[in-house]
From TrEMBL:
Family stated for the protein in its record: Belongs to the UDP-glucose/GDP-mannose dehydrogenase family.
Keyword Oxidoreductase: yes
Name used for this protein in its record: UDP-glucose 6-dehydrogenase
Involved pathway(s): Nucleotide-sugar biosynthesis; UDP-alpha-D-glucuronate biosynthesis; UDP-alpha-D-glucuronate from UDP-alpha-D-glucose: step 1/1
Amino acid sequence: MIGCGYLGAVHAASMAQLGHEVVGVDVDEPKIAMLAAGRTPFFEPGFEELLAESLASGRLRFTTDFGDAAGARVHFVCVGTPQKRGEYAADLRYVESAVESLIGVLAAGELVVGKSTVPVGTAARLAELVGDKVPGAMLAWNPEFLREGFAVQDTVHPDRLVYGLPDENADTAHALLDEVYATIVAAETPKVVTDYATAEMVKTAANSFLATKISFINAMAELCEATGADVKQLADAIGHDDRIGRKFLNAGLGFGGGCLPKDIRAFMARAGELGADQALTFLREVDNINMRRRIRMVELAREVLDGSLLGKRVAVLGAAFKPESDDIRDSPALNVAAQLQLQGATVVLTDPAAIENCRKHWPQIDYADTAEEAARGADAVLLLTEWRQFRELDPVAFGKIVRQKRVLDGRNALDRDVWEAAGWSYRALGRRHAS
Ligand code: UDX
C-alpha cells in the first residue's frame, strides 16, 4: 500500500483483515511509527480495533522503506491528490512520485492499482510509463468511495467495485483484483468492469452528483427563506419520491471536507483542458451555492445578535466538516466560527474530536471541552456540526447556562418544537421562524 493516509491506512488494515500479507509504505516517518505502534493518526470509528487486530495477525506491517514493496503481487497507490494552490486543478505530484518510486521495485506480472482520485486521462499516461519501464507489469484503476466516519465499513463492505482495466492483459489484471477482493466478490457486490477513463470518471461523477444534490436543496433553502416555506418539510416531501430519495438532501451549512470541494473543482479544471468546460459550468454554481451558505450563516448570527457581532459571546458546537470525524479540511463549521471571530465576536468552540486540529490553525479562538462549557454566558449558540451529543442536548438544562436563549441550527438537526418549548428562540437556514 503506497501512501498511508486516510485511504491507504484503512485499506491496508482492511486488506490484512481479508487475509492478505500487507506492507504499508509512506514517506512520513512519524505517521508510520504511529501506525506500526497501533496508534491511529486520525479519528475514525472502528479503525483502531481493526489496526490492532491486523497488526496482531502478523499480516500487516508499516515501513518508510520503498524497497519493502518489492515482491508484492499487487501495489496499491493510495496517495493524496489535493487541490493545487491558487488553481482548481488536482496536484498529481504525490501520485507521480509514488509510481516513479514503484517502478524501481516493480517486476513483470505485478499489478499497480491506482485508488487515488485523479483527473481522467491520468491512468492511461501512468500505464504507458509503467509499461515502458517495466515490460510485463500492469496497471489498473480501482477508485474507492469511502466516507469518513464509515471508512472501515465502506472498505470491507463496499456498495460496488469498479475495475478500470488495461486493453492488454485485462483478464490477468481482472483475476488478480478478484483475488484481492475475493470475500467482497463472493458477497455478490456489484462490479463494474470498464476502461481507465470510465473508472476515473466514476469517482468524480459520483462526488459531483452528491455535491449537486446538497447544493440543490441548499438553493431551495434560499428560496424557502425568501418565501417563508420550510426546507426540511420540502426535502421530506420530495424525498418520498424513490427517483429522488431523501439521502443527501439535508439543507444547512453545506459540504466541506477533503473530497467533495476539491473533486468538483478538479473535475471542472480537467473538463476545461479537454475543451468540454461547458459540460461542467453548473458545478461552478454548485460551488457558489455551497459557499454562500457560510456567508448566510454569519449574517444570520449577526441578525440574531441585534445587528452586531462586536463583543458578543458566541458558543459554536462543532468544527469538523461532519460528525464522527476530526477532519477540518474546508470545514464549513470552522469557516463560520473563524469569520465570526474575525468580525469581532468572542467565539468559544467545542467539538468532540477536532479541537486539537483546530487549535493549530486558529489559536486565537477559545476552545472548550464540552458544549456546556462553551455555552456558559453565551449570547447565542450555533450548532454547526451535527454530532449526536449536540443533537441530544437537553434545551431546558442548557438554557440555564447561557446568557440569551438563542440557538442557530446550521445543520437543521435539532427538534425545533422542543427547543422553542424550552423558551429558546430557534433559527435555521431555510426554515420559518417565530418572530
Ligand atoms: C465523500 C463521498 O461521500 C465519498 O463517497 C467519497 O469517497 C469521498 O467524499 P466524505 O468527504 O467523507 O465522503 O463526506 P460525505 O459524507 O459525503 O459528506 C460531505 C459533506 O457534505 C459534509 O460536510 C456533510 O456535512 C455535507 N452534507 C452531507 C450535507 O451538507 N448535507 C447532506 O445531506 C449530506
